[in-house]
Design goal:
Blueprint lengths: L4 H7 L7 E9 L2 E8 L5 E4 L3 E6 L59 E8 L2 E8 L3 H8 L3 E8 L2 H15 L7 H7 L6 H15 L7 E2 L13 E2 L4 E11 L2 E5 L5 E5 L7 E3 L12
Parallel strand pairs: 9-12
Antiparallel strand pairs: 1-2, 1-13, 2-3, 4-10, 4-13, 5-6, 5-7, 7-8, 10-11, 11-12
Length: about 280
């Protein structure tokens, strides 16, 4: 039976694209995008100076996030997460966002480790979050925050999540930063003095613990002339990279317009220079 291009992409994206994106992470202030070549299985790091790729719509589990990045045994198609349940480090994936226990009910020891509730700053706009206590600075860099400070020490992930929700409601501070707000923050120099003053006021007015404010100021992202426009992940993205900060890559397209691509959503998708092998030019 004849299969059209969309069917081929869903069933065998490796035949249409060259690389499978297996990971995106920060090594201090250096972003790392790791890919696996479909034909050879070779895993390598992709440079982020120029972005000129077609990104697939289909997402398939790239395998566990460990040394060598072995393939997923099932090549599971994904919807919400970047790895399947078999390859994910969390036995219950939903516990990443909403822990169900104190870490004693499953094999994931990290849930039972000490966690911190923190306030991160995007300019002077605060956000409440939680993470393992040893990862506060790393979490701030992953988010693209300009500064971060832990404010509550918690015994485990469940307790930290409950305190995060309580503090967010009590202070009227958000728990997420959307892409458009993030884009607008890239056209202004970071007001570090104002951030420090804001942090001191929040500690004082809310009777929070003093654990120190960490300034995060070494991202490979200059102040942009125009706010980049967030774009959907699937499709064609082509142009010189303007900078990378947190989960976002800013690039200038062929019309001169700055665009903003969510690299965290590229993980588990496929990349290629052209999808014409599958007749997919109309999809991008």
């Amino acid at each position: 039976m004849f299969k059209d291009a969309s069917q081929l992409l869903q069933e065998d994206p490796e035949a249409c694209f060259r690389w499978h994106v297996v990971d995106y992470r920060w090594d201090d202030f250096t972003p790392r995008l790791t890919v696996r070549e479909n034909s050879s299985g070779t895993v390598s790091e992709m440079g982020l100076q120029e972005w000129s790729w077609f990104v697939s719509e289909v997402k398939r589990c790239p395998g566990p996030r460990r040394e060598g990045y072995p393939r997923c045994p099932d090549g599971t198609e994904l919807k919400r997460f970047s790895r399947c349940k078999v390859c994910d480090s969390f036995p219950v994936q939903e516990c990443v966002f909403e822990p169900r226990c104190d870490g004693s009910s499953c094999r994931d020891a990290s849930c039972s480790e000490p966690h911190s509730v923190y306030i991160s700053f995007f300019g002077t706009v605060p956000k409440v979050g939680m993470t393992r206590s040893q990862r506060v600075r790393s979490r701030g860099i992953e988010q693209g925050a300009d500064a971060i400070m832990p404010v509550l020490a918690c015994r485990n992930r469940l307790e930290a999540r409950e305190e995060e929700k309580r503090l967010s409601a009590a202070m009227g501070v958000r728990q997420t930063v959307n892409s458009r707000d993030f884009a607008r923050s890239l056209v202004r120099p970071v007001p570090y003095d104002a951030i420090i003053a804001k942090a001191e006021a929040m500690l004082r007015d809310n009777d929070l613990e003093e654990h120190g404010l960490t300034v995060l100021d070494a991202y490979p992202m200059p102040v942009l002339e125009r706010a980049p426009i967030p774009v959907p992940t699937p499709g064609r993205h082509r142009g010189p990279v303007l900078g990378v900060k947190g989960r976002f890559l800013a690039y200038r397209d062929q019309t001169g317009q700055p665009k903003l691509l969510d690299l965290s959503d590229v993980v588990s998708r496929y990349l290629g220079t052209t999808p014409s092998r599958c007749g997919q030019t109309t999809l991008f």
